[in-house]
Amino acid sequence: MDSWLIYRGQGEPDPERIGRLPDPPRWRRFSGDPLPDAVPPVDHSTERRLGERAPLPIQDDESLQLINAALYLRRPLLVTGEPGSGKSTLAHAVAHELGLGRVLQWPVVSRSELRDGLYAYDAIGRLQDAQLSRERASGTGPVPDRARAGDRTRPDGADPVGGADPAGAAEDNAIGRYIRLGPLGTALLPSVRPRVLLIDELDKSDIDLPNDLLNVLEEGEFRIPELERIADREGQRTVHVLDEDGRRVPVTDGRVRCHAFPFVVMTSNGERDFPAPLLRRCLHLKLEPPRNERLAALVQAHFGPGADELHHDLLQSFVEGDDGGELRLTDQLLNAIFLTQFAAREDRVRRGEIADLLMRPLDQQHPRR
Ligand SMILES: Nc1ncnc2c1ncn2[C@@H]1O[C@H](COP(=O)(O)OP(=O)(O)O)[C@@H](O)[C@H]1O
Ligand SMILES: [Mg+2]
Q1: pLDDT tens for residues 138-176?
Q2: Domains of the chain by residue range
Q3: Rounded to whole angstroms, what are the CA distances from 258 to 31, 199, 211, 232?
Q4: Is the CB of 63 inside a 6 Å radius of any atom of ligand 1?
Q5: pTM (whole model) above 0.85
Q6: How far apart are CA 251 and CA 179, in angstroms?
Q7: Closest ligand 1 atom to the C-alpha of 81?
Q8: CA–CA gap between residue 120 and residue 218 (Å, rounded)
Q9: Which ligand is nearest to the CA of 287?
Q10: Which ligand is nearest to the CA of 288?
Q11: Which CATH superfamily is domain 17-118+180-286 in?
């Protein structure tokens, strides 16, 4: 094992190892004032994907080198490969092994815009609340739920939307309450340890998103114009907003600037070519679908040690179609193993039938690349 590898793909969590990551190269240093590090632990979605973890590495050597290069160089990792090759799970594996906390996930669709990943501002909700507060103050309207709950502990400054607010109403309407950072916005908060951000299926996006994304990832920062605009008002320079993990975090001068650059995994099923500038500024990892040892490791991770031997026949029929260019997804194999355990433990014929049913090659609209 190369000693420079911080992430080793061995599965056992070792949160100390990230502390050995050297400083970034000069051109990838970011100057956000660090926030205290209390990142929520990996959640259920990570555990579901990784299973129990096998003692065998699921990534090959070249993948390990590229994943580590991205960590050292503070560059996003663009991961391409067929569905089922383990692209999305890679982000979870890194977060789990290096103790980097909950994976921030941004599933991209054709209408996704940069702004969705950065933050959302609920202007309408704010107006409605301001209206309610005014009515409450003049004794004409219902008391808003939040005021009843006595939630007056927030440190935000007041924003005088809608004129002179009575005490309390001002806090209820403070702008930070209506701004919520998205997965990308949260990943760029100045945490001491890098967060893990999964920008999943970037190839589904509109043509502009990759370039827009590139600019933000290059600078490691973004602005929130709604906060910039009020930053010179008294008590408004630092506003607490909600992040993707539901925490209240301070934003000063309407700017979010990272400290440790996040570990960013952008995945693509290869349905599109990305612009050259994006490729230049990322590291590109092409994942092959898991076979042989990697497949055995994966099956063990989900069904326990020795499961690959026990279900040797299913693994065999899973890889059989490879030569004929048939495409089967890893999840089909996992489903088949799971089901045959119950439905046909002893009955080999029935077992074969179930396996055939669940592991039918996806139709040839998905030619092998
Ligand atoms: N490192 C891993 N450890 C355990 N299971 C994995 C690992 N990588 C992939 N898998 C499993 O393989 C399947 C396909 O992986 P996924 O990441 O969804 O592929 P892709 O995003 O390329 O379509 C998932 O069911 C996942 O649980
Ligand atoms: Mg995926």
Answers
A1: 876 555 554 444 343 334 433 333 334 444 445 556 899
A2: 17-118+180-286, 311-358
A3: 7, 17, 19, 22
A4: no
A5: yes
A6: 11
A7: 22
A8: 22
A9: 1
A10: 1
A11: P-loop containing nucleotide triphosphate hydrolases (3.40.50.300)
